[in-house]
Known about the structure:
- By secondary structure, the protein is α+β, with helices and mostly antiparallel strands.
- 52% of the residues lie in helices and 19% in strands.
- The chain folds into two domains: 42-183, UvrC, RNAse H endonuclease domain (Nucleotidyltransferase, domain 5, 2-Layer Sandwich), CATH 3.30.420; 208-257, DNA polymerase, domain 1 (Orthogonal Bundle), CATH 1.10.150.
- The protein has nine helices and eight strands.
- Helix 1 (2-22) crosses helix 2 (26-39), helix 3 (91-108) runs parallel beside helix 4 and helix 5 packs across helix 6 (215-225).
- It starts with a helix and ends with a helix.
- The model has no long low-confidence stretch (mean pLDDT 86).
Amino acid sequence: GEQKALLDMCFNNAAENLSEVINRTGRETSVLDELSRLLGLDTAPRYIEAYDISNTAGSENVAGMVVYKDGRPLRSAYKKFKIKTFSGQDDFRSMAEVLDRRFTEYEKGEDEGFAVLPDLILLDGGTGQMSAVVPVLKKHNISVPLFGMVKDSKHRTRAIAAQGGDIAIKSNRAAFTFITDIQDEVHRFAIGYHKNRRSSSMLNSELTQIEGIGKTRAAALLKHFKTMARIKATSAEELAAAPGMNKPAAQRVYGYFH
């Protein structure tokens, strides 16, 4: 009735006033407040980090970290990780490694990109991913709210995974849209990095089929000429002049493609 309308008006006015102070729109302030209530947070999460793992059957295993500040993507703070401690497919172990490295960098204090402690951490996945990361946070004495972003069978955001079980979010339209945007963005970022690494790996593997061209020379050629098309179109003399190359190796590369 009238009391609810009055309360809604007061809430919206307060959100607008707060947004002027902290450089957020009323809509962004409202969605962060809605999310904090939904997750039981003490304050609205102004700085959110989200993580996703991407690989193809365990190969080129990578992770992406995206950041949302005051409800907006902060792309300058995005980070890429190549999984280093093991080979194969294990999303739980991958997520633990990435968060361990992230907070190790925070403790070192040498990289400004890791200097901010987030107000909220979101993992692409459910209780399995969360269970893998909780010991990492304890190891580094990090007390940051941790939740998962759960997808349905059609890879659409379905719920938020919490320590006590899933939290349904579809009835909270603004929060649902916001979480969906974050989950889509971190997936896009992680899979984009994975595809780039996979493409480079495939190009490297083609070059390493050539006698005398190992991974180091293949990488140097790709870095110098940028694309396989340019390498294939380059003369033996130009190939020989490239970093890390010599005349015999250049002749073999040229002969392989001609």
